[in-house]
Amino acid sequence: MSGEAEILGTPPLRKKWKDAKQKAQEAAKKTKETPKLDALQKNTLKESLGPDLDAWPKLYPDWTKLQAGKSKIDSTITTYETAIKNSGLSENIRKLMTAPLTEIKTEMAKRLEKAHELVSSDLKAATKASKKAIPPIVLVQHEVAHLVAEKAGATRLKPVRIYLEIILSDDKVLKNVPAGLDNGLLAQKIHDRVGFASLIEDLAHLLKTVDKMEVDAAEAKFEAGMDEIIHKVLDRAAEPILELVKVRSEYRMYKVKKGATLALATGGVVASIASLAASPFTGGVSTVAGIIGLFKAVSTLMVEANNLAMGTEEFIGKVTEDLRTLYKQYKKASETVVGVGEIAKVTANSLVGPWITTIKSAKEGCEQAESKNNGLIVKANDEAEKLGQVLTKQEVLYQQLRTYEESNKKLFSPEEVAALLKIQKGIETTAKSVQSIIEAVSKLHGRTEHNKGALVMLHSAMAQLAAKEPTWSKVGQMVAQVAVSAGLMIAGGVNVPEPMECMKLTKEIAENAGRVLESLETVKDLIEGFNDMLKKHKK
């Protein structure tokens, strides 16, 4: 294991979970709840958690695998937490397991941030990881049982667990992503067409169709129905893939993982829901903390994009001034040399030596501006991808709040209801702000793509101009052509190229990002305040 991997794996988190289970077993033995705990272990707590916690640090320096591994661990923990809460075990035993799970989830969020720092600081490791594989696109990776149950309404069968994971990882699609279009933009288009809300509606309808069946038969029927629903999802996802990368995607191009557990809504399930009614909204705190961590990573990208935009426009401004100088010198030379024919016979270098220096300066400026604009395109796509992840996590938080409120609404005081409404409004407001930033990032991407074409033309023209000592008349024609290709009005004294719009957009995005981060911190404070209020109420 590398030194960095050892840092990410210290101290080992698997032992924390192992110790938690051991303590729960000892406590259950004293309270005679061992059968319930054994049933929980056998039926639900069988997904890989300990081994995944041990294996995760070894994924370094592959950033894509580190992210995917962290998502899998988070999903497993969420499944475990839900199962423990619905197990019918006493509160003390549940806490012995859920508290360490929450600690593990929080620690994993910190370790992923540390992994990002390590990968970013080690260019060799980052380059090696990027060469290993093209980053996959995650279409769906959710535990959706509570969302489906809420959408289905009153049913005889209740979903204990419904996990869906659909990942596009086939190089036949990913390797065809053209220059200027990275996976972030493609992923956003796919997510828009997949339609998460439609997916939940389809699963809820499926649950209703099996509601009158015996549990085992219903589970089998539900699993089969999920396959059909996944096919519908992939049909929708295929449209933007064909549109953007000109490749037809098929079912076999995806890694699909699914699983469902249904149970009768009687006895233990109902009793466990009732026993959880007065629990604080602790899951919301960890979820919003994760969103804040992710958004801080987005904010770092925004600062980098802002710096790139400034650099791009600095060089564009320099090129503009160089071209204006060339144009003025051309006009002056035209007025002092007799006749157009005479102008054409005399080389620029023989009349005014500084011309060649100015042409060289403009050419170098073009190259710098083109390089920085290409970097800005990548940053804009990275921003779009991570902002989409923020919206997904905010939707999870919103649904967690809705489910929690529905389960406990009869126990809340008027003040607690008011506090919950503030939390809900805060989440909704933040989601709208993030959506506004995504729209601005989309405009930035469009602007950088437009500038890319103009800068390529500008670079090409300047290279042609610098390749030989042109005649004065040729210089005049080419300078005018170059200026038009870049959208510059050098003759009229206007020195504001179109790329200056990039700076306005990145400034707008950065300002809005600050407001979103403040809003997220407010939501976190509101949830913590609500939990404190609930503790006092219980006393």
Structural summary, described in words:
Helix content is about 75%, strand content about 5%. The protein contains 20 helices and 3 strands. It has a 3-stranded antiparallel sheet with strand order 1-2-3, sandwiched between helices. Helix 10 packs parallel to helix 17 (about 355-410) and helix 11 (about 195-210) runs antiparallel to helix 12.
List the helices and strands and how they pair.
Layout: H1 3-8, H2 14-31, H3 34-43, H4 50-55, H5 63-85, H6 91-121, H7 123-132, E1 137-143, H8 145-152, E2 157-168, H9 171-174, H10 183-194, H11 196-209, H12 215-245, E3 254-264, H13 268-275, H14 282-336, H15 340-345, H16 348-351, H17 354-408, H18 414-466, H19 472-485, H20 500-538
Helix pairs in contact: 2-6, 5-6, 6-14, 8-11, 10-12, 10-17, 11-12, 14-17, 14-19, 14-20, 17-18, 18-19, 18-20
* H/E topology pattern: HHHHHHHEHEHHHHEHHHHHHHH
Largest sheet: 3 strands, antiparallel
The count of strands amounts to 3
- Average pLDDT rating: 74
Lateral strand order in the biggest sheet: 1-2-3
Number of H/I helices:
20
User: In one word, what is the shape?
Assistant: elongated
Query: What is the CA–CA distance across the termini?
Result: 50 Å
**Helix-residue proportion:** over 70%
What gyration radius follows from the Cα positions, in whole Å?
A: 30 Å
Structural class: mainly alpha
